Amino acid sequence: MTKEKIILFDLDGTLIDSTDAITGTFYHVFENENFNFKGTIEDIKNEIGYPLEIMFENLGVCKTKVWDFVAAYKARYRLISKAQTTLLHNAKLSLDEAQKFARLGIVTTKTTKYTIPLLEHMDIFDYFETIIGYQEVQNPKPILNPY
After folding, report:
1. Is the pLDDT of residue 137 over 70?
2. In the 3-class helix/strand/coil scheme, how is the chain assigned residue by residue?
3. What is the pLDDT of residues 30-48, one digit of tens each?
């Protein structure tokens, strides 16, 4: 039986909670780059879901330094992401139910380089037929203008 329905899942906040990994990595990078971050952990949390370069810029990093911060972030995140990320409650149950009637995919602002190991670590990789990461789209997430 061919499944005609398709469900695309976001990753962070939908299936996994990587808040501690993300915020901890931001603080680590700010310290190592000698950046005097004047915000709060809530400011970082409010940026989760946007591409890293946008997050760093929105948190006060100068445009000319953003990619240095992104590189430092990725180097650190690679080391700690699995240990500091958890599967959300009932996520696996939801995937079990969804796969009964639909083909499943992931669409995330994480790159697939980081997404695939997390999905494997959480033992949910095999649920998905496709994974669309940041590097595979032109506009990863629209930035909404509140005005």
Report:
1. no
2. CCCCEEEEECCECCCEECHHHHHHHHHHHHHHCCCCCCCCHHHHHHHECECHHHHHHHCCCCCCCHHHHHHHHHHHHHHHCCCCCEECCCHHHHHHHHCCCEEEEEECCCCHHHHHHHHHHCCCHHHCCEEECHHHCCCCCCCCCCC
3. 999 999 999 999 999 999 8
Max distance between CA atoms of the chain, in angstroms, equals 57
CATH 3.40.50.1000 residue ranges for the chain: 5-16+86-136
CATH of range 5-16+86-136; options 3.30.200.210, 3.30.1490.20, 3.40.50.1000, 3.40.228.10:
3.40.50.1000
Q: Examine the pLDDT at 145 and tell me if it is beyond 70.
A: no
* CA distance linking residue 42 with residue 29, whole number of Å: 17
For the chain, give the mean pLDDT. Answer: 91
Q: What is the pLDDT of residue 147?
A: 44
pLDDT on residue 3? 87
CATH T-level fold of 19-80? DNA polymerase; domain 1 (1.10.150)
